[in-house]
Specification:
Layout: H1 2-34, H2 38-41, E1 50-61, H3 80-89, E2 95-97, E3 110-111, H4 113-119, E4 124-125, E5 128-129, E6 139-151, E7 156-171, E8 178-182, E9 184-187, H5 188-195, E10 199-201, E11 210-212, H6 213-218, E12 225-229, H7 237-240, H8 244-264, H9 299-312
Antiparallel strand pairs: 1-6, 1-12, 2-3, 2-9, 4-5, 6-7, 7-8, 7-9, 10-11
Length: 313
């Protein structure tokens, strides 16, 4: 009898435990379904949501407005390039090799801080760099990688800056012409927490207008020429179109195709003609009054008139 009771209690305890475990699993599953994680919400982590994608490379000239704000930061002594080097020296962000081709951002292309600074003759000592060695004045442009894509889950067409690359411009050894040296790539998602609070001026006509560097890129406030699109031949636009006129036409064609694609996503809405006098009372039908017909004098009346005239005469 005692053994039977003990066995029943054990079975009941196991059953209760399994039921509570099942309930906890269902609750956790419900939470994950009702509150998806950031990775689940991000359309770029789920390729099933992306039905169309185009990768575009742009050249941002800092000598032109509004791009110059990235170099001449009014509210901070450091420009964007100095901020990037400081983050790299303290090992806060990852750095990737610049490749003359399709860019890859993985372990194989990752670069450590020491080798990067040695390559550009910047003194680096245990996470500290000499501010006098930062060649900020030589950084006259940035390359950026944009992703244009359609998120079918959110039904939105998006333009996102994925990566940014500072470009040094220095005089050549044999020629006085400036030579471009793309330095490295950093992911925008990695640097976003550090540039979201740094404000820059974005309006030449109203100098009080300020935006963060993060918003500057997120809102696509920059201006830059397309120098490459991801293609099967892996060639830049200059390689595909050596003639300057053909190059300009190719850039215009790409810009227009991006705009036209976004417009073509949405079906035009046909508005029904606006009805006037909708709020006015309907006009009542006009009721014609019966017309009064003039009756001709009767024969008897005519005879009496003749007789009256005859008697008078």
């Amino acid at each position: 009898m005692i053994l039977t009771i003990i066995g029943v209690n054990d079975c009941f305890a196991q059953s209760t435990s399994s039921v509570s475990t099942l309930r906890r699993k269902n609750i956790d599953q419900s939470k994950s379904e009702n509150h998806p994680t950031k990775e689940q919400n991000s359309p770029e982590t789920n390729n099933d949501n992306i039905q169309w994608l185009r990768v575009v490379y742009r050249d941002l000239d800092l000598s032109k407005s509004p791009n110059g704000s990235l170099k001449n930061i009014a509210d901070n002594s450091k420009d964007l390039f100095s901020i990037l080097l400081d983050l790299i020296s303290k090992d806060k962000i990852k750095v990737y090799e610049y490749q003359d081709g399709i860019e890859r951002f993985d372990k194989q292309t990752e670069v450590n801080a020491k080798s990067l600074f040695d390559r550009f003759d910047i003194n680096y000592n245990n996470g500290n760099i000499d501010i006098n060695d930062i060649p900020s004045r030589d950084v006259e442009r940035y390359y950026i990688i944009e992703h244009y894509f359609f998120d079918s889950r959110a039904s939105k067409f998006k333009r996102v800056v994925k990566a940014i690359c500072p470009v040094l411009e220095r005089g050549g050894i044999t020629t006085p012409e400036q030579v471009r040296y793309p330095m490295f790539w950093v992911m925008m998602d990695d640097i976003r927490p550090y540039i979201s609070s740094i404000m820059i001026m974005t309006d030449d006509n109203n100098n009080i207008v300020r935006h963060s560097i993060d918003n500057f890129f997120e809102l696509n406030m920059y201006k830059g020429d397309i120098y490459k699109t991801q293609n099967t031949t892996n060639k830049s636009l200059v390689q595909l179109y050596p003639d300057p006129n053909d190059l300009a036409n190719a850039r215009d064609s790409i810009e227009k195709s991006l705009v036209e694609f976004e417009k073509g996503l949405w079906a035009p809405t046909f508005n029904s003609p606006v009805k006037t006098n909708q709020n006015k009372a309907k006009n009542k039908p006009v009721v014609q009054k019966p017309t009064e017909q003039k009756t001709s004098p009767t024969r008897a009346g005519a005879v009496r008139s003749v007789r009256r005239n005859h008697s008078d005469s």
